[in-house]
## 1
Amino acid sequence: MKEFKSLVKPYILWSFLLIIVPLLLIVLYSVTTGGNSLVNIRFTLENFKKIGEPIYIQVFVRSFRLGLITTILCLLFGYILAYVIAQFSEKAQSILILFVTIPMWINTLLRTYAWISILSENGIVNSFLEVIGLNPVTMMYTDFSVVLGLVCDLLPFMVIPIHTSLSKMDKSLIEAAYDLGAHRWQAFWRVTFTLSIPGVINGVTMVFLLSISTFVIPKLLGGGQYVLIGNLIENQFVSIGDWNFGSAISLLLAILMLLMINITKKLDKMEGGGDL
Amino acid sequence: MKKKSRVFSFLYIILCYLFFYVPILVTVVFSFNSSKSLTKFTGFSLRWYTQLISDQEIMAAVYVSVSIAIFATAISTVLGTITAIGMSKSKKVLRDTLLSVNNIPIMNPDIVTAIGLMILFSSMMIAKGYITMLLAHVAFCTPYVITSVYPKVRSLDDSLANAAMDLGATPFQTLMKVIIPSIKPGIYAGILLAFTMSFDDFVISYFVTGNGVQNISIIVYNMTKRTNPTINALSTIVIAVILVALIIGNVVPAIYNKRKDKKVKMEENAN
């Protein structure tokens, strides 16, 4: 079988060129000035200092706040959905879960585009309100529309890991809890929820990370004024042309992700190690 | 008490699925609308589909999306599969390093991967356009192929390949006739993932493209300022393509397995 060892060589070269080098370039750009030409390169920490300016801090705060709201809503609705699905027969469960995953395969952009025609001033919801004699409501370009779009897009990422840990659970443990005199709520909290924590942690990390790095949904549903971290990066590269500052923000975002993923892994291990 | 919670379960599931599927339904329904309105359905027509076909800009984008998805899937499937096979035979250090490097594009936010590649292409003076988009797609699809093929390779019994070679098969023959057939399910999963990832991608394509080369997502992104029902027609076609890909990916293996089970059972009965 030694013959097949060299099959790995093309990818070593490929992954170095298209995965490692781009990351190094982001690091290089983030600590230099001189724009896009590497001729008059100069090392500096200006780009990172600039992130500390109030307008940019505000962008970070807004992104985290929105990410947090989205995550909490996804956890609430997603947990209930996963729990309800887990009560069905195995066959029904796999069909129900399939229907949760299908939207994930369809382009976010196209699904978000549809929300515009549902929520806009003379959209479907407002036409309906008019028919039943209510006043139209402004929904587009608000926190509401952005959070709605995010929750719709990210809810499956919460439901699937939670459902996985709920369906792996040994049902007799709950019966045991009842036999030992636990109330419904106690049994749920002390047994079911505790055992589903690994799924919850996974779902929460996924949803939070995806929601703070998105730039499509805030742009489509929040309008041009709605700037989150993703939009800030996009602006630096597409319209403003300050690649160095853009790279510094991206690097910070990548490091944040790495930290959070590592914390999750640690928590996951701790949960997996202890019983109940 | 029990009945009540059953009713609640059904209601809750229906509400959640409505939430997931309303945007998709709205898109599909209004793509067949006879008027330009995105709120009132005035009658059935294929008007937006004819307009779609005659719109050269959109058709060019469809061509870009489809051809890139096919090429990127083909290249990343081959690259990912041989890498997974090679990796299982490599030293532990190399294997672990490659696996963690491979995880970077999966873990990293799309936007970070995208700007990394954008900076790479412009500092290497590669003209942005079709080729850069294809390279970028291969770059983010291959890791997914590797993660779906590698577990299958690991669970493979080495003695099969050794037996084939002892019996005089060349390494290439062994690869094609023994190894590849036994890791087929992983490869199919990889193909499905790579195709849909590539076909659906917006963020990475958006940053690495140039010279007017657009895929479907980029054209939708640029068109959102003016509501345009042809986008609904386009979305409906995209949704249909993805659904067909999913059905092929999920139903065909299930039918295949059932047939195989049946065959085995029939043979058992015959004996």
## 2
Amino acid sequence: MKTRTWIIILSSAVIVCAVLWMFILNSSSPSKIVGIYQDGSLVEKIDLNSVTDEREITLNGKFGKNIIFISHGHIEMKSAECPDKICVKHGALEIGGTPIVCLPNKVVIQFEETPYGADAKTGAAE
Amino acid sequence: MNFMRKFSILFMTVAVLFCSACDFDSKADSEFFAMDTIMSITAYGSNSQSAVSAAENEINRLDKLLSVQNENSEIFKLNRDKSINASADTVTLLKRAMNFYTLTDGAFDITTEPLTRAWGFYSGLEKRVPSQNEIDNALKTVGAEHINIDNKNITLDENTSLDLGGIAKGYASAKTAQIFKENGVSSALISLGGNVRVVGSKPDGSDWSVAITDPDDNSKQVGTLAVRDTAVVTSGSYQRYFEENGHIYHHIIDTETGYPAQSGLKSVTVVSEDDTLADALSTGLFVMGLEKSSKLYSKNSALFGAVFVTDKNEIYITDNLENRFSSQHKFEVIER
Amino acid sequence: MKIKNLILTAILTAMALVAFTIEAAIPPLTPIYGIKLGIANVFTLFALYALGTRYAAALLFLRIVLGSIFTGQAVSFIYSLAGGVLSFILMILLKRFFPLKQVWILSVLCAVMHNIGQLLAAIFMTATVQIIYYLPVLVISGIIAGAFTGLCAQLVLMRLKKWSDSRYS
């Protein structure tokens, strides 16, 4: 084949790939994989984007029950029987936000990957 | 024969490479509760698994030693009996705390226990504004001059009580980093309830990126620091507070007034190779405010760097962090 | 195997290793893993045209093994091997269609193939199919890097045409 033909083929490949890449960059939604931990061990891993039906998870701890509510793209501590209920007041888990923590019952709900573009965050968990 | 020999050499080379590949990739992490918060440690390298469990044991041991609320801790016994024969760890930590008291001109103080108790910032207590009388009484017991260290014998003046909450996590993270180094872990990330400590560089050789929480919105960040082998600790009024009659009262108590510190700052982040210093100074600088902190920095720029967020949402960084800090916000540089 | 060719292969391997090691020491140009020029490939191409398939294969394999040892990144050995073997197979299959003036085109095709091989290895190693999203970027970077290294090899080969004519088939 002639060199010119090749140049045309290759440059069109570059253009097609560039368009494809722009498309991927715009369409990809951040992954929302959330891990629920109790006393350091994983209870369940959920991709919030693939949740279709609403459901609840009940965990039993030293200070009674924690009820976690899950729907599409959303997770929150619905109710807790621990004394301070900080985890319930925290509201829904936000991208880049602090994890939902119930200290008395040792429950943590957090994103599996750090979504804030850094390896760690200072001063967040207290 | 020749072929077999060549082949076996080749095979062994590949086998060795694959083994080192496994080592290189291995990662160990642990998340657990200690010191009233979440501890999260991640280490990379061949020895990481044993190093992480050793670190976890060490943190739990220190928690049992230094906790204000655990009835078997040395600090609890000291607060109750006003006198103990302390372990080496406790003595070291108390001496360092006294040094930081002098360094910060009294802004960092470990004798705040009676004040913190009066404000109800311990779990199980109700957070409230104490009466002026209560505050005045507590203030009489405050100050490092009420602590006496004689070798291993530590005594407290009557009514003085200690709370190492502002320094214990720093000490624990220093110990953890030390354990990692001894175990040959060259890359690790430690977060003790928001006190971040990085060991070495990331496994790929690049700097760790540590974000500083935006005091107004936990889900956002003020900026990021690119660091290696450093502790990054933030103290902020947003971390623990309560509201009463429209006023917000936070947990960092100024021992001059007995009230939550009103120094014009929302948060202070201290960057230092010395974890214990970083932890203590983040509280100390918060109480001192921007102006006094800048003066302290100009004399001690080799010891630490800092990022300040003021009440007006201005960001100030010390000049030794200029190449490490990046932010989408505007920030001012404090020259030493 | 002529002694002369053997020595030449050894020298070329050493040169490829130096290029590879220096390139590994330079911080990555982009945040995306796997994008680099691949200057070491100049030597593989040169060996293929100047010395023949067997010598080029030996050079490539030695460079990958020793390169992984020198840079201390054993993980990258698997990626290098996957990419290297795949692109080399393509190289010997297509070589006869490309005369000396089109070496750079062959290089482009091989570089793209190399990146695809690495991508497949990465998908296999990390068990995450989502990495396939990087394909377009890796194709573009392969075309650019391949054109550059191919041109390097081609220019050297053309300068040494007189010398390489006797071996060039």
